Amino acid sequence: MTPGLEPHGQEIPVVGSGSAGMPKEAGASQLMLLRLGARWFALEVGAIVEVALKGIVTRVPTAPSHVLGVASLRGRLVTVVSLERLLGDTGEGNENGATLPRLVVVRDDACEMAVIAEEIYGMTEHVPGLDHGGERSLDLPGFVGEEFDWKENRVYLLDVPLLVASAAQLAGIFSPSEQMDT
Fold first, then answer.
1. Is 150 domain-assigned?
2. How many CA atoms lie within 13 A of 161 on its CB side?
3. Cα–Cα distance, 129 to 25 (Å, whole number)
4. Within a domain: 67
5. Phi/psi at 95 (nearest 5 deg)?
6. Higher pLDDT, 91 or 108
7. What is the pLDDT of residues 40-76, one digit of tens each?
8. How far apart are alpha carbons 176 and 64 in whole angstroms?
9. What are phi and psi of 135, to 5 degrees?
10. Could you tell me which of 4, 11, 49, 151 has the fewest CB atoms within 10 Å of its CB?
11. What pLDDT, on a 0 to 100 scale, did the predictor assign at position 174?
12. CB within 8 Å of 158: residues ≥ 6 apart
């Protein structure tokens, strides 16, 4: 069996991994590659809770524009956010539909949220800090930890703790310690 996430019985292939799915190089991490529109993103596998193949997203009145709504996944409500809007794009892509292609649920501590993926390539290993094809774009938010080239595509490695914190802060949600400081 190929190691990896297995949403609803479907295996996601591990690309470029060593035996038993372990990274070949010291310091390498396993990343899941996903596409939204023309952009490719990567998430560390350890931050991914699940991949839901389809999800009905219910809009929440007065929610900020980057919060698309909530989805019910196995009896719990998960906030669905728009990566495009968090990156500053105002494009009206597939995110506006009531049914979305895939929801990738990520977690940082007790906070859980979902991002949309139109396509999931699978997993690949990545060695952070190596020159992976160019300099960092200046206009990217802090939750994009690194950029690298993969199969002639620019990939944005998302830092899940910063992504969750950015989405929460834009929604006016702060941690208990931040609320006590204000």
1. yes
2. 3
3. 13
4. yes
5. -65, -20
6. 108
7. 999 999 999 999 977 788 999 988 888 999 999 988 8
8. 21
9. -90, 160
10. 151
11. 63
12. 41, 42, 43, 83, 143, 144, 145
**Residues 6 or more apart in contact with residue 56 via CB below 8 angstroms:** 71, 72, 98, 99
Tokens 């774009």, located at residue? 137
Give the global pTM: 0.73
Look at residue 18 and tell me whether its pLDDT is greater than 50: no
CATH value at residue 66 = 2.40.50.180
| Residue range of the domain that includes 131 | 28-171
- Per the prediction, the chain carries an average pLDDT of 76
Would you say residue 12 lies in a domain? Answer: no
The runs of H, that is alpha helices, within the chain are: 83-86, 160-170, 176-181
Pairing mode of beta strands 48-52, 102-108: antiparallel
Among 47-61, 74-88, 125-139, 159-173, which is the least confidently predicted range? 125-139
Query: Burial, 135: exposed, middle or buried (Cβ in 10 Å; 0-12, 13-18, 19+)?
Result: exposed
In a domain, 22, yes or no: no
Instruction: Quote the number of domains for the chain.
Output: 1
